[in-house]
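Can't paste images in this forum, so I'm doing it all in text. The chain is below; anyone willing to post the predicted structure tokens underneath?
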Amino acid sequence: MITQILPVNEASLEAARVIIARGGVVGMPTETVYGLGANAFDTVAVESIFKIKGRPNDNPLIVHVHKDYDITTLVKDIPDYAKALAKAYLPGPLTMVYKSLGTVSKAVSCGLDTLAIRIPSHEGAQRFLKYVNLPIAAPSANISKHVSPTSAEHVYRDLNGKIELILDGGKCAGGIESTVLDCTGHIPIILRSGLITREMIAMVVGDCGEYVYKDGEKALSPGLKYKHYSPTCKTKLFSSGDFNKAVAYCKNQITLGVKCAVMCDGAASEKIVGIPVLNLGATADEIAANLYLKLREGEDCYDEIVAIEPVMQDGVMVGVMNRLKKACAEVK
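Text version of the structure:
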């Protein structure tokens, strides 16, 4: 199969529509990461997403719709707080989980009675979703457990020969996946942290909980189970307080003949001399936008990435730290 990367225009959108209509999958841009999209009504198409990615079939998918799509045809019992959050933050990097009407394929939610809905703000994503006018089930467009893609080129490297088309919408501005929010209870509960923070949610609705996944439980959201976001090279994670240990470890690895680099925030990078650095940036937004980019850059150039946790760990950085820890986790 030949994989094409095409800019988002009328010709590529028509090509994408034809692929989706016959049960195929398409690489699509969003403001967070690139997605691998298929018709959420079509079980065979949805199941092909799992096969292409090598994704475990107990890891639910998110359904993407355009901003004018009537989600009451897909879900029920939308609480007032969810409506308030939608007004404040959608379209945007917020996924909300509701009770499902069962109209989409059961393969999307992996047997759960809920459905995760997202309305991306990326212009190219909106054009694609309006053009097909279907709910599109779409996880990140990468091989399962690998670093999520933030450019069309990243998607191509993982899925070349496995899909026909990647819609190129440029580099993703957000850089980490959407916040996933359980909206089936009396208050919203964060299932996965992201660019819409707990503080931002509480500012609109007053109260917001946070779910802690326990081993053995059924995953309520993508990103809760398994090792994720991982580069192909070795990784080692140090706390910000262990800066000197991290640098010393990297230098020692280099003396042993290991191609090694330190990945850290801008403030830490300024203190490092004589060894390669993967600089994540100075602000929380920069670090989020650059995390996957630098992990992929690191795997291309080095045998090992020595990651130092940023000093900032609140707000958007909660989501960044979630991804960083999973990226550097031991394989299970």
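The longest strand covers residues 94-100. The mean pLDDT is 95.
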